[in-house]
Design brief:
4 copies of one chain form a homotetramer. Chain A has 2 domains: 2-8 and 256-340, Aspartate Aminotransferase, domain 1, CATH 3.90.1150; 14-253, Aspartate Aminotransferase, domain 2 (3-Layer(aba) Sandwich). Helices cover 40% and strands 18% of the residues of chain A. Chain A contains 14 helices and 15 strands. In chain A, strand 7, helix 7 and strand 8 (170-174) form a beta-alpha-beta unit. In chain A, helix 6 packs parallel to helix 7. Chains A and D meet through strand 1, helix 1, helix 3 and helix 10 of A and strand 1, helix 1, helix 3 and helix 10 of D.
Chain lengths: 341, 341, 341, 341
């Protein structure tokens, strides 16, 4: 039995476990006031190629979205996202819990279009009753998107340009950032993302860490008293070292990018296998998540050897099945899929 | 200059003003603990034809939606509405302010379809990840809808049946309830609405009152400690008499329905005038609001004699213009429109 | 039977009713965009003796506190108040509903002491863990206070000085402002209050209006997009004229101050009667509310002719009874109390 | 240099690290749906000696308080706590962030008194205006308390009895539960706590874990759809194994209690040293935290060899200094303190 259920089925990359063990008995101050956290922040800033960045660590993705969005929005504002966005549909209303609305605009293959965004903003400000509406105060996108697609550099530049024209911060959810950047179809670098967005996060949970996400405020724009706001949301980790050591390890010797690249290579082989088997792709994804359509009989058969995720309902007969690779996927896992299914 | 801007351009029906004056110097207890509030509740319950109803008064429509929805939803639930619903778009995020999500499903001409609702619910519960989503915990519709359309009895029965099957309360926003019920195209009565919904409100602000909405919990289902929850939302009026006297008057001698009927008669003449002028209808509304399409030149000309509302943007050239009648519209107002425009 | 239950037992001052009737059929725009609201704002600014003030109208006191406090505080801040403050104890948690903490510091006779406030702030900032605490972001006081006491000009200046030293806005709840300013023991004017606070409100509900409070942002410091934030809290009245006409009337020919003065004169006679009867004062109040201590037998006897308020529990035997005068109290009311009780 | 700064200066107990490493590459489902989480829950239920308990894991203490309190309170309710309670003062308003008030009643040495609690409740319900107040809907205590004191079994039984009389759930914050239970002055067992409270948590962060708290709903009273509410608060950990493995380890072979006992033995030696040095105790604590009073000179000298916490301001001259032991404190640490300071 092998698992392609998601990209967080294993613990942490062994190098992270080794570093946690190595540093375990050192007496360190809490709440991120330790040397490993400090070092991790510096390494990430360097990788982003910017002096104006501020880096903060949080524990999980939904928590990060909630904290970042609700501390950056003003009272009268909401965040724009596409209907398939994680904040729109898979966070049990965490953004609304903080008192803010998610403003949905149509997307394509999980991506926001710069034109659609601009149209929405033009229409909003031309509506004479917009004082009775939620103001657009932030744009949320993810890279890769939920179904695993990628923005091209041109597409991201266009969205960024609209945001700057309207003075709205652009926030990029990078829960699987490594798997996006290391795709052969990506023409974006971490530096590009730091340049084109106002805030983004580098996902750890899905890319080799036990937990943890690194938020990068790219323009010296971290909200005032951020630690207190994090505490107020129950999101301040006492032993900040747990996050610091993990990200310090991930950003030493390019570990984050090397393990992401591995997941992509595994995904490329996975795509090959899917094609060989004649399974139908739901969407064409150049990243680590492959969505395919299967009927009940196909799923029954697959489940004899493979753990997978029922990602969504396609129609009366077909289900969208997700097969995900990650840093922990092995050639052996693929062999089982190729030979036994 | 005459105004068809909206249905709340005048103060209150003169009979209400008279009663406010008449009762003005009586010493009455606050917070709705007065005889007029008591009397108004009884009259409304009688008009609804039910013994199990509980009636409460609030000041405005958005406030009412916020209070009702947030006191009836449970922590993990949101409210289903169509994209043009008042709670979806014109309340500046008041529902989200209380920590709850508005779950949008497609509508037609401002109305929710029972089939679409059922599909949404089927799909929600068949999604294996629905524990990470907001649960549908209430259905919100309005009668008339935002663009002025009406549900038939059959349509409302169908929606009600889906709600009961899924044990989700059905909430009907009746900001303009009188103008809906008194339309010649309505086959619904107040009793029908009390029977088919779990909670609804009878709009006063737009139907003859200075302010005020009467919430009817139809099945003995008023949330516990409702007064405290109202207070907590800053929505408890000290001089409850202001609401009590107004609704007591509106539900004496059928005043609410008589003035609503008048508005509908004025709207029928207005539709005749619109047809005569050759203006294009945006939607076919059998109630007091008429939405038409006009270009800039037409609006300029109209504005010489008439105050109207730019309801929305239609396309690059055309604007959706609203002309609304109300209890206060006169034959003279219509004459100006017919003869001078 | 006469009522001294509270200062909102009657409707509105007859002059207000007259003006509501007079303006009733005029077609006016909604949401405060009418000439009466405009006029009322101008008159209030003039009465405050300042060019930098911005005036907004809301419907009730708790609503006003909630809207003002939650739109002025930043995410990490709370509001400082004394334990007897209305926001601390009598708003069912309306401030907390908006996500903010009320930080209580000890008071004396319902009043905050400048020294206590300063000590609190010194201690807060000297606490090394204050990043894990709610920051003091506003000071809330009321004038008169809940038990009816008054700040002297010196006391208010001292509190104001501490606030300015710490750059914290000072907010004064003036639910009964007229009854404070018109007391013979007050050495403060409306202009003083506008000068010494950052925001305050002039209570209408308890001083002659059917409903309504006038918020004065004294230093051009109204929060951005205030109307949208008001709407988001369900607090935007459609027929803003109801508030505009009332305050326009109250600030014409000093009506607000004249009727407040009347209430104070009635209160002075009331104090005389209390002394004659030998009833014990709970607190020495120079304003319209008199708090006295009574046992059950005394209350039983009083209740034969008078409606009064059981304000609080004093001890096992005694209850704190409130007798309030207002603009609507008459010599006849006092005569009943004097002669029959 | 040795550190007595707090009880979370080290990573995790080595046995936990070993188990994390051992299980690291196993493919497990997320969100707590793994065998280690299941096993940990069973062991904890057994240790609590009850069949009706439900166990859930969260990441940190403030998060746990926020999630438990806000999912158990109803809309109109707040939580009662003493002023030194963690929820009252050291959570940056996390409870208020969820829309609920913390109702403070006086305590003694950090402890709530059953009599004070009862008086508060009697007074609340005898106040005729309590519909305008926040209802008491839960009692929050901690064991040990913030300053390190302990409730006796009798004291806890008395508080529990008041709660049951008023049908209010009793919640015990056990951030340092092991250090309380293992104190020689404790006459309470884990089973007692499970019996006398309605919900409590077993702190991991401060007792040997990298992070994590185990919430025990003792009476089959876990809120409905708890996982969705946790997700909504951004508190659902994707790799639930991180919490499951840690608590499974802590509750294997009594590890949790053995390491807690060690911390207490270290604290007893620490108290001896404090007495020898002639330092003044601020409070008499039988648990792992010792609070002493020091002037600036004493602190300067101590800081040459020891890292400690400035817990609070005592007066103009003296600071309350905290010296904490934990599972990671060694005899060597104590030797430094004894010999060099």
């Amino acid at each position: 039995m092998v698992s392609f259920e998601c990209d967080y089925i294993a613990g942490a990359h062994p190098e992270i476990i080794r570093r946690l063990e190595e540093t375990n008995m050192e007496a360190l101050s809490g709440y991120g006031m330790d040397r490993y956290t400090e070092s991790a922040k510096e390494k990430i800033k360097k990788a982003c190629g910017t002096d104006t960045a501020q880096v903060e660590f949080l524990t999980g993705g939904t928590q990060t979205n909630m904290v970042v969005i609700s501390t950056m929005l003003r009272d009268w504002e909401g965040v724009i996202a596409v209907p398939s966005g994680h904040v729109s549909v898979h966070e049990s209303g965490a953004i609304e819990f903080t008192g803010h609305e998610v403003l949905e605009i149509p997307g394509r293959d999980g991506k926001m279009q710069a034109d659609t965004l601009r149209e929405y903003l033009v229409r909003f400000y031309s509506d004479v009753t917009h004082d009775h509406m939620t103001f657009p105060g932030m744009v949320y996108i993810s890279y890769p998107t939920e179904p695993g697609t990628l923005y091209s550099k041109k597409e991201l530049e266009d969205i960024s340009a609209v945001c700057r024209e309207y003075e709205i911060p652009l926030y990029l959810d990078g829960a699987r950032l490594g798997y996006g950047l290391m795709s052969r179809h990506s023409d974006l670098s971490l530096q590009d993302i730091a340049r084109l967005t106002d805030v983004f996060y580098i996902g750890g949970t899905k890319v080799g860490a036990l937990c943890g996400e690194a938020v990068v405020f790219t323009k010296n724009n971290r909200p005032d008293h951020f630690m207190t706001s994090v505490k107020k949301r129950g999101a301040l980790l006492a032993k900040g070292r747990l996050l610091g050591v993990q990200f310090d390890t991930l950003f030493t010797d390019d570990l984050y990018f090397r393990i992401s690249r591995h997941a992509i290579e595994m995904a490329e082989q996975l795509r090959e296998i899917i094609r060989e088997k004649g399974w139908e792709f739901y969407v064409d994804s150049p990243t680590n998540q492959q969505l395919i359509l299967m009927d009940e009989e196909q799923m029954r058969k697959l489940s004899e050897h493979v753990i997978f995720d029922r990602w969504g309902v396609y129609d009366d007969k077909l289900t969208i099945v997700r097969l995900a690779t990650s840093w922990s996927t092995t050639e052996d896992d693929l062999r089982v899929l190729r030979e036994l299914c």
